[in-house]
Design a protein that fits this description.
This is Glutamate/aspartate import solute-binding protein. Keywords: Signal, Transport. It comes from Pseudomonas fluorescens. The structure is a single chain. The protein is α/β, with parallel strands linked by helices. The protein is built from twelve helices and 13 strands. The strands form two sheets. Strands 1, 5, 6, 7, 8, 9, 10, 11, 12 and 13 form a ten-stranded mixed beta sheet that branches. A three-stranded antiparallel beta sheet has the order 2-3-4. Helix 3 packs across helix 10 and helix 5 packs across helix 6. The chain is elongated and about 60 Å long.
Length: 301
């Protein structure tokens, strides 16, 4: 069907088409003001940091993002600002920000140098710890090595460690920093083992529970949350050891210093006022003295 536009309509359409590239290239806050919508990206199965609830989300990181939204409303005079919750996958979380699909990635993630080529990051909102879940009847040699002990009596040679780690199947979330870490450890130690990747934490724990993987590596608080919810009676256990620590942040558009400043100002205010400690108590089981010291280190003056 052919539709003929009147001259005013044609001019309006031409103007809108001309404006579209400008909106696409505008910085985050300008896009938000033009659309009156702030799009919050999040991992839907990342409790207690972010969890999908219908067409919305909840969790520690979501509460912090809502404070960012309040700041946008107040500073940009947008009292009717709409929030759009956009779930993303781990493998797509960075590209979702760099492509403009989301305005901010609420779920915390490590700010690696490789990622900083395409996105920018807020000040840290949490310190992640890398841990592992195994079956309670896992081989003693594997448990000893994963717990930081030698696999057998005698000198702690690399070959001794390898005997505990080799010929095992490890699992990690595809596209996560943990996957890269495991591959690097296997390379450095010369471990002959299998690494399988899964879409999310639930899938990784299922592999271990079914005996299809010997250990699943992921963020400690995330593992604790899933074990308490889905595997309270299962023969799985979270090892005490933390293999790595890393500050994790929200991701925003690269080079957009105005929006990044607004986000960092919001988070710093929460650190200084104690609001972030309240969110920590609500979702993460309370802040230790060490965590409280990190609050002071992360907040900008």
């Amino acid at each position: 069907m052919n539709v003929q536009l009147t001259k005013p309509a044609s001019l309006l359409l031409a103007g809108l088409l001309a404006l579209m590239p400008l909106i696409a290239n505008a910085n985050t806050l300008e896009r938000v003001r033009a659309s009156n919508t702030l799009t919050l990206g999040y991992l839907p199965d990342f409790a207690p940091f972010s969890t999908q609830e219908g067409d919305k989300a909840s969790g520690y990181a979501i509460d912090l993002c809502l404070k960012v939204a309040d700041k946008v409303k107040a500073e940009w005079g947008l009292p009717t600002l709409q929030l759009h919750y956009q779930p993303v996958k781990v493998a797509d979380q960075i590209s979702a920000v760099s492509s403009g699909k989301v305005d901010i990635l609420c779920s915390p993630t490590p700010a690696t140098l490789e990622r900083r080529k395409t996105v920018s990051f807020s000040i840290p909102i949490y310190t992640a710890g890398l841990s592992a879940v195994v079956r309670k009847n896992a081989p003693e040699a594997l448990l000893n090595v994963l717990n930081g002990k030698v696999a057998n009596e005698g000198p702690t040679w690399r070959a001794t460690v390898n005997r505990g780690l080799s010929n095992q199947t490890y699992a990690a979330t595809a596209g996560a920093v943990t996957e890269q870490w495991i591959r690097e450890q296997m390379r450095l130690l010369g471990v002959v083992a299998t690494l399988v990747t899964v879409e999310n934490t639930a899938a990784g724990l299922k592999l271990v529970a079914e005996g299809k993987a010997d250990a699943f590596f992921s963020e400690r608080m995330l593992l604790k949350s899933y074990l308490a919810k889905d595997y309270a009676d299962a023969k799985l256990m979270l090892l005490d050891r933390n293999y790595e620590y890393a500050p994790v942040s929200m991701a925003v558009e690269r080079g957009d210093e105005d929006f990044r400043l607004l986000v960092d100002t919001t988070l710093s205010d929460m650190y200084h006022s104690g609001e972030i400690e309240q969110a920590y108590d609500k979702y993460l089981g309370g802040a230790s003295d060490t965590v409280k010291k990190l609050f002071k280190a992360y907040a900008l003056p």
